[in-house]
Design brief:
- The protein is an alpha/beta fold.
- The protein folds into 2 domains: about 80 residues, Rossmann fold, CATH 3.40.50.10860; about 130 residues, NAD(P)-binding Rossmann-like Domain (Rossmann fold), CATH 3.40.50.
- About 40% of the residues lie in helices and about 15% in strands.
- It is built from 9 helices and 11 strands.
- A 6-stranded parallel beta sheet has the order 1-11-8-7-5-6. It has a 3-stranded parallel beta sheet with strand order 3-2-4, sandwiched between helices. It has a two-stranded antiparallel sheet with strand order 9-10.
- The longest helix is centred in the N-terminal third of the chain and has 21 residues.
- The protein is globular.
- The N and C termini lie far apart (about 50 Å).
- The structure holds guanine.
- The site of guanine has 8 residues, from strand 4 and helix 6.
């Protein structure tokens, strides 16, 4: 039987509608709508699409959004100056610096310059530390989206064997933390799962993946996960966004749909959830510093 499709697009719409309702309530109370400032440096076509989609989602949910599109030859000092201005602007609740940045700019320096209270990506070391210790201020958008996607699809994570393929700072590492942590009042979305993190250098990768009840692919290699790697009846989440001959494809081979019980599609799976969680974080940021 083909796998059930985990409908990220539909779930993201539900979350965005919840956010829109909350934003409308805040505005009716005389507050400013939450505002997101997106910073884009250069002309990376994929980044331009991501930022456009993020801003469109903001507008649909009633959030303010501003785009600061800087030329590719912007200096690190110029970018730092913009970040400092946005840090001070009371109408800006969230700051998103779209990655990757041009090579002559040190990403780490820029990400550390964003005030942690507006760091809706949760990339600042202070927010990473809070997440690590189980007191997240903001949950990073893609891992948060994966957890919400599972929860809202009634897929239990507690006690499950979860294998995460990929160890990036944006997805693999924070997702492993969030998935393994014990839920608490400070950390209600934690997964309570037993987590293995694997990557391209992992020995016996196929056997490890076969043990997963929930397999999450964030390795950045087109169609890396094949049907032979998946336990029949497993849930498979595809975080991959790859371009092959101009066509978008994930990290999971479509043949996995014949083995898995449930599978998130690319496009239309984790991508829209990531954007919904960015809005959620921006709303949260607005409640941290009321305007
Ligand atoms: N580039 C790829 N993914 C992301 C993300 O989640 N946030 C930002 N700011 N840049 C990215």
């Amino acid at each position: 039987m083909p796998a059930r499709k985990i409908e990220g697009i539909r779930l993201a719409k539900v979350i965005k509608a919840e956010i829109a309702l909350e934003v409308a309530r805040r505005v009716a109370d005389g507050k400013h709508p939450p505002g997101l400032a997106a910073v884009l440096v250069g002309e990376n076509p994929a980044s331009q699409v991501y930022v456009r989609n993020k801003r469109k989602a903001c507008e649909e949910a009633g959030l303010n959004s501003w785009l600061h599109h800087l030329p590719a030859d912007t200096t690190q000092e110029e970018l730092l100056k913009l970040v400092h201005t946005l840090n001070q602007d009371p109408k800006v609740n969230g700051i998103l610096v779209q990655l990757p940045l041009p090579k002559h700019i040190d990403e780490e320096t820029i990400l550390r310059a964003v005030t942690p209270l507006k760091d809706v990506d949760s990339f600042h070391p202070e927010n990473v530390g809070l997440l690590m210790t189980g007191h997240p201020r903001f949950m990073p958008c893609t891992p948060f989206g994966v957890l919400q996607m599972l929860k809202r699809s009634d897929i239990e994570t507690a006690g499950k064997r979860v294998v995460i393929l990929g160890r990036s700072n944006i997805v693999g590492k924070p997702l492993a933390l969030m998935m393994m942590q014990k839920p608490s009042d400070a950390n209600p979305h934690a997964g309570d799962a037993t987590v293995t993190v694997a990557h391209r250098g992992t020995k016996h990768l196929k056997e490890i993946c076969q043990q997963a009840e929930i397999l999450i692919a964030a390795i950045g290699v087109p169609n890396f996960v094949t049907a032979q790697m998946v336990q029949p009846g497993a849930v498979v989440i595809d975080v991959g966004i790859n371009s092959v001959n101009g066509k978008l494809c994930g990290d999971v081979d479509p043949e996995v749909g014949e083995v898995a019980a449930a599978l998130s599609p690319v496009p239309g799976g984790v991508g829209p959830m990531t954007i919904a969680m960015l809005l959620q974080n921006t709303l949260k940021a607005a409640t941290i510093h009321q305007t």
